[in-house]
Structure formats: C-alpha cells, structure tokens
Write a structure and sequence with these properties.
The chain is mostly helical and 135 residues long. It has helices spanning 2-14, 18-36, 55-87, 94-134.
C-alpha cells in the first residue's frame, strides 16, 4: 500500500511544472518578436512591412530578432516535448496517454478552425460583394 501511495504522489507532483511556464512564455515571446519585425511579407504582394515609425529601429530589431525567432521555436518544441514526456503517468499505456492528450488539446483546435473558417468566409464574401457592386 505504501508503494501505491508513493506512485500516486509522484503522479500528482509530476502533473504540473510551473517553473517551465515562464520559459514557455519567453520562447513564445521570441517567436512573436520575430514575426512583428519581419520586413518582407510572406503574403502577396510581398511588399515591405515595418510596424515602426523609424526604419532604423525596425531594421535593428529585425537584426536582433531575425535569428531569435528560430531559437524560440526550437526551444518551445523541445520544452513541449519534455512537458509531454513529463505528463505521462508511470505504467500508463501508450494509447491511453495519447487519448488523454487528444481529449485535452483537440477541442481547442476544432474551435479555432471553426472561427478561422467563419472569418475566412466573411472576408471572401465581403470581397465578392464589393466586386459585384463595382461591376
């Protein structure tokens, strides 16, 4: 019975890693800063984008965050893999672990996909509506 309690205690103490939440924030912040300092838009017509009034400031921030974004993505994925491995319970079957992860994460993806499709449809229909009115 003592072994069972220690296993339950290990599972409870291993469920959360609050010290890593701050690190995930900084990794995501690096990725965010990378995206706001992109000077060449990947979206056609690929015109230059600079959200800063001072072009030198924008170029300087792009030089700083141009590589940091890649480091942030790599670190975020590495950290996420560690957290996933940490979240597994000792002796838990592989299928049960992934089912638990799917039930936790997949509903968020469905909600965001639906919202994206609604926004996309609204953007497309408003364009079609304007082009018909202009003709």
């Amino acid at each position: 019975m003592g072994e069972m309690r220690s296993a339950e205690g290990d599972a409870r103490s291993r469920s959360k890693l609050p010290s890593l939440t701050g690190l995930r924030f900084f990794a995501a912040l690096l990725v965010f800063c990378f995206h706001i300092t992109l000077s060449n838009s990947p979206i056609p017509p690929n015109s230059a984008v600079n959200p800063f009034a001072d072009a030198q400031l924008g170029n300087g921030l792009e030089a700083v965050f141009g590589k940091a974004g890649y480091v942030g993505v790599s670190f975020f994925f590495l950290l996420s893999g560690f957290v996933l491995a940490w979240a597994s319970k000792p002796g838990e079957p592989f299928v049960r672990f992934w089912r638990r992860r799917l039930v936790k994460i997949f509903p968020n993806h469905i909600v965001m996909w639906v919202l994206s499709m609604v926004l996309f449809a609204a953007a497309i229909t408003s364009r079609w509506g304007r082009s018909r009115a202009c003709s």
